[in-house]
Amino acid sequence: MTPHADPQAGAAVKAADRAHVFHSWSAQGLIDPLAVAGAEGSYFWDYDGNRYLDFTSGLVYTNIGYQHPKVVAAIQEQAGRLATFAPAFAVEPRSEAARLIAERTPGDLDKIFFTNGGAEAVENAIRMARLHTGRPKVLSAYRSYHGGTATAINVTGDPRRWANDNGTAGVVHFWGPFLYRSPFYSSTEAEECERALTHLEDTIAFEGPQTIAAIILETIPGTAGIMTPPPGYLAGVREICDRYGIVFVLDEVMAGFGRTGKWFAAEHFDVVPDLMTFAKGVNSGYVPLGGVAISAEIAATFDKRPYPGGLTYSGHPLACAAAVATIRVMEEEKVVEHAARIGETVLGPGLRELAERHPSVGEVRGTGAFWALDLVRDRETREPLVPYNATGEANAAMAAFGAACKKNGLWPFVNMNRTHAVPPCNVTESEAKEGLAALDAALSVADEWVA
Fold first, then answer.
1. CA 77, CA 71: separation in Å to the nearest integer?
2. In which band, very low, low, confident or very high, does the pLDDT at 1 lie, cut at 50, 70 and 90?
3. Cβ neighbours of residue 430 under 8 Å, at least 6 residues apart?
4. 3-class secondary structure per residue, the chain
5. Contact 275, 298 (CB under 8 A)
6. How far is the CA of 1 from the CAs of 37, 39, 51, 435, in angstroms?
7. CA triplet 393, 397, 398: central angle to 5 degrees?
8. What is the Cα–Cα distance from 110 to 298, expressed in whole angstroms?
9. pLDDT in tens, 368-402
10. What is the largest CA-CA distance in the chain?
11. Is the dihedral angle over the CA atoms 26, 416, 57, 84 positive or is it negative?
12. Which of 50, 111, 206, 374 has the fewest beta carbons closer than 10 A?
């Protein structure tokens, strides 16, 4: 598809939006959403004919890009055959989606509970853990995001939790490993791993192991900064959970389905959780879908005992048909392998080369099509380019950086003092290099704010 200008149509879309749409995470009177006319592959465009390379993959979910013809056709075909059906029945797209997902999850995570998205997946995973163990508490890390529903927002570790925090929710936060900004004063990955595990064990001891139902972690934290855990950490958490009878939940909502160059990020660490949540990339976000992959032991808890939870649209046929088509496309086009290769040969080396030339880049982190640049005012002190959770004038440096990206035709993922490079997993080499060039120009703007 070729972008064409139609400003009048764009103005009508914007007017209706401003009059009637209530946007999430926003002060409604302070936002100016872009009116989008279309999208294809790694790009989208507005009604003025401006085209943007999407280095956000929507909200890190268009893992095979926009408007893939095989997935669009699958949705159309399913709509003509059976557009919807209640979740209590066995229907072909639901059964096939569950089978294909279970074939790719690690270990014995062979039962799939479908939800409408990632937050509901986290809600239900925690409910399952509490019912399975009979315990109330959940431990989760600071620097995390698990969703915006009641329980999911409470296990979240970033500032979006604050306004929704419920002190009686039974959630305890702890520090996960992050060597670049270590809370443990570590100087090596081995030290960071050992000290983070000791901190977690201490937290468990003081909270009471017998009160803790689950530990939930993003396998590789996404929005919080793409901090790959050090070798041995997730295996250490697995061992701690086994020792205390705690359910280990891995949140793969963002990191799953090829994003890290593996079907699931857990494969990088050779770890099998008891429950795994997913969404986003399962069908490239074409129709809302999420779910929980459940171990045999936890599934058996509900063999004779009803599971007290469900959703009207659980395993919706259109969403599941999109998932089936997406997984098949990823297999046929070797999207997972491509994500690994583009990370190793283009994105990783290119971002590290930018870091060498731009003093505003403190650290480059990532794998596959999942990267972050930690922007700083001072490389020696690692002072962030803007303060934690900055807004308004305090966030001017990152706002200027983001504006420079858009001016150069790149739509960036900007969060606090970071920009994330998270294009579709099938982004081409030339598109990736185009994005790196736009980042190069925008980082020159960020450099102006370096102390």
1. 10
2. low
3. none
4. CCCCCCHHHHHHHHHHHHHHCCCCCCCHHHCCCCCEEEEEECEEEECCCCEEEECCHHHHCCCCCECCHHHHHHHHHHHHHCCCCCCCCCCHHHHHHHHHHHHHCCCCCCEEEEECCHHHHHHHHHHHHHHHHCCCEEEEECCCCCCCCHHHHHHCCCHHHHHHCCCCCCEEEECCCCHHHCCCCCCCHHHHHHHHHHHHHHHHHHHCHHHEEEEEEECCCCCCCCCCCCCCHHHHHHHHHHHHCCEEEEECCCCCCCCCCCCCHHHHCCCCCCEEEECHHHCCCCCCCEEEEECHHHHHHCCCCCCCCCCCCCCCHHHHHHHHHHHHHHHHCCHHHHHHHHHHHHHHHHHHHHHHHCCCEEEEEEECCEEEEEEEEECCCCEECCCCCCCHHHHHHHHHHHHHHHHCCEECEEECCEEEECCCCCCCHHHHHHHHHHHHHHHHHHHCCCC
5. yes
6. 11, 8, 11, 20
7. 105
8. 11
9. 999 999 999 999 999 999 999 999 999 999 999 99
10. 64
11. negative
12. 206
Output the pTM of the full model: 0.96
- For 240-273, what is each residue's pLDDT tens digit? 999 999 999 999 999 999 999 999 999 999 999 9
CB of 122 within 8 A of CB of 217? no
The two tokens of residue 283 are 């069908």
Tokens of 257: 């389905």
Amino acid found at 277: T
Would you say 294 and 275 are in contact if contact means Cβ atoms under 8 Å apart? Answer: yes
Length of the chain as a residue count: 451
